[in-house]
Amino acid sequence: MPSSRLVHRKGFSDATRNYLKGAEQGYRFLTSHFLDHANGGYYWKTDLAGTPTNTGKFLYGQSYVIYGLVEYSRASGDQDALGQALTLYRDIQKHLYDPTHGGWIEHTDRDWHRLLPGDPRNEVEIIGLKSANAHLHWMEALAELYAVTRDPDVGRSLADAVKINQTWFYPEKAALSCFYRQPDWASVTDPRRAGLSYGHNVEFAWLMIRAEQVLERPPSWNHFYAHVDHALAHGYDHKRGGLYHRGVDNQPATDTDKIWWAQAEMMAALSDALAHKDDPAYRSALQSLIAFVLRYQVDPRDGIWLDTVTANDRPKAPRKAHNWKANYHDVRAIVKFVEAFGPAGR
What we know:
The chain has helices at 2-9, 19-34, 59-76, 79-95, 132-149, 152-169, 198-214, 221-234, 260-276, 280-297, 328-341; strands at 45-46, 52-54, 57-58, 107-108, 130-131, 180-181, 196-197, 246-247, 258-259, 308-309, 315-317. The longest helix is centred in the first third of the chain and has 18 residues, at 59-76. By secondary structure, it is mainly alpha-helical. A hairpin with a 5-residue loop joins strand 1 and strand 2 (52-54). It has a three-stranded antiparallel sheet with strand order 9-10-11. A two-stranded antiparallel ribbon has the order 1-2. A two-stranded antiparallel sheet has the order 3-4. The model has no long low-confidence stretch (mean pLDDT 95). It is globular. Helix 1 (2-9) packs parallel to helix 3. The protein folds into two domains: 1-194, Glycosyltransferase (Alpha/alpha barrel); 231-346, no CATH class.
């Protein structure tokens, strides 16, 4: 959802492609059909006609609503959209914030009652646990909301989210990153939940820097480079190019698939790394990553990235769009690359 707003703000709309008009259509559909006018918050899913088919309210989804509303307000100047983003933030704080242990509850029904484990309405992460994925994207949404509003409550929540992610999910020792924590931040011992995501680690790295810059505090560059270096050491294909999917600790990758969004987030992180300081290793990795993406992950007929490619460069999941795949990751990464290395960024 935020990508069309972003490309319009960056000046890519023209006579044949009005990205703001597309963003407005998405905004109208979202507020007309997903918004729960009675209880606040946004439903998880509707059908194509706009009838809700899953009225669950998940932190992951609410975060992207805020992100999308902020980007639409930035692109269009619509202050109502920004007001709705702030209203949603306050609903989330009221219903999802965990006052006992900190962090945020991730799964509720339309009335904001917590879902019980195994509830079939859940479609993202695990009920009863706190996830690195949802808390990462909540930090991401808060950063953009605070950048525009400078609301002190949002600023405090953003600082809290940064600390939680740095402490519990993506510590400076990147090998200790994890997917889940218990509600009280205790470790999750189920071996099926073990491991880390290289893509999420590097995505966190650059989003952390963005959040700290918005907070006007010194960026944690050592923490940032620790995650980029770990991904390059253990999750990167230095022969063919590309970032693997998952691994454990400091061991070789356990899942060597190359998924489109992970390549995009590695491109974004390496762009930020090189914009901060030139380094031959990062430059080489970025060059090989781009070469891999252009040769194996992108369909040259239309420029759309394939979902998943195997370690030996064969298409594994060639779909270009589905419920979990849009152009949010890749468009943003390309924009960051252009800004870092285009004529104005050189």
